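Sample 3 of the quickstart, ligand nicotinamide-adenine-dinucleotide:
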Amino acid sequence: MYKVGIVGYGTIGKRVADAVMRQKDMQLIGITARKHNYRVEIAKKKGIDIYAMDDITELCEHGIKIKGSLRNLLSQIDVVVDCTPKEIARKNKEEHYDTYPNLKAIYQGGEKADMGQSFVAQCNYKEAIGKKNIRVVSCNTTGLTRTLHAIHQKWPILRVRATLIRRATDPGQTKRGPVNAIVPCLELPSHHGPDVRTVLPDVEVFTTAVVVPTTLMHMHNLSVDLKEHKVTREEVMEVLRNTRRVKIVRKELGVNSTAEIMEYAKDLGNFRGDMTDICIWEKGVGVHGKEIFFMQAVHQESDVVPENIDAIRAAMGFLDGEESMNMTDKALMKPNGDNPIRD
Ligand code: NAD
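Result:
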């Protein structure tokens, strides 16, 4: 049984916690909290042990029973999954995690690539086996690498050009915008292209990005040039259809927007109403000689969740990546009841 602790119980941390609790080979030892809020209340209701990052007074005043300090948590676990906001994990790593020689640590995509082995399970599970530090890449990089890897395996890619239409913030957050603007990312390439290459070093990819006023998913518009193969649309569909953690949005479903994808995920009874698969619109796939075009939607809050679970197994030296992904996907597919709608 792998003993897991989670530092940072926000958008990603609370999902990873739920996902860990569904795995037969993992035990959630606890999460950390800093301030009292609804998320901590829910952790308490779920029976999760809560450890305090720093001052416990405010938490105690609200009736939250504190099991111990961060150090107490770290001394009991095999793996820490750090889900704190951008750049805080580095401080946690240097001040805390690095001082435990046997502790493995998983970081998120807000951190720089030097934090650990960049990881997307279906692309490079093997490279992460036994590593002390693994970085699950960002939601966008995860989405790009899942589909590009599948194409590149079948037909080597010459170059990729992609535009990312990014959500402004997450549905539960109220402090960020834009509310009424489109904000171009004036960094070329946007950081996503170079980040993809931390997982797929031999794929030449150039990305641009804009942020738009939505909370429901990111969209990627991709143009992929193949080195030498001329392919048919049917061949491309076949590859994408058979790619793990990718879902083809069939044209007859009438799912024509990210809003409808998220509604569809809830209606399917997906765990937490999330969509951990990268969604590609069937009607949006086109081919022109050696070029492939497609549009995909990425549920930013959840596509990295199965990756975190596989990263835990890889860090712990579990050798079979395919088996890890099978276990993860099976455990996450179950909705709250026992009656999943298979799609
Ligand atoms: P969040 O703000 O929703 O949650 C962060 C959590 O960390 C909160 O519980 C907060 O209380 C806690 N925290 C803040 N400062 C802390 C500190 N100094 N020590 C300990 N805990 C602290 O953040 P998030 O959106 O879950 O993002 C976490 C990481 O995941 C980031 O690296 C981010 O880039 C990455 N990520 C986010 C998304 C997304 O869409 N939200 C998607 C993929 C990856």
